[in-house]
């Protein structure tokens, strides 16, 4: 350090040392578990935020958070196999299955494109190994690309008369690839 100028010099390399950066602890891993009734408010918040962020073509939401929470608690959870993705205590997204129908798969907007949707979808497939189908709005190009990437194919084109929003939609289906065929004569 040059004491006249207060500047670091090559004669004193320690003068160039930066203060040690604080290390941030790694984020807890994302886990998928079965949804609990106490998750209903967080699931409702994810549902509403995701629809607003990813589907701007939908009419403005008319349901309050309390109404959506009640729908999740009283209809979705009792009638569906609902999975949630969590990191620590944060609920990041959810998927809801009714038989082979993937009825819902929504993520918090701030965690999209972080493999959480893929994680939820993989768990849904594990629970329905014979295949899944779903409905997606034709305008939802992001979801359509996501499902196409994961092997879903269009099996029906619909005019929207069967959904509340009256928007054209598609029915997509995923069927697992057949396993290897054993050679002839193998027991």
UniProtKB/TrEMBL annotation:
Compositional bias annotation for Low complexity = 15-24
User: InterPro entries, alphabetically?
Assistant: Acyl_CoA_acyltransferase, Bact_Acetyltransf, GNAT_dom
Indicate the segments forming the N-acetyltransferase domain, all copies: 30-173
Coiled-coil intervals: none
Where do the segments described as Disordered lie?
Answer: 1-28
Give a GO molecular function annotation for the protein. acyltransferase activity, transferring groups other than amino-acyl groups
Keywords associated with the record: Acyltransferase, Transferase
- The name this protein goes by in its record: N-acetyltransferase domain-containing protein
Identify the species of origin.
Streptomyces glebosus
Lineage, broadest ranks: Bacteria, Bacillati, Actinomycetota, Actinomycetes, Kitasatosporales
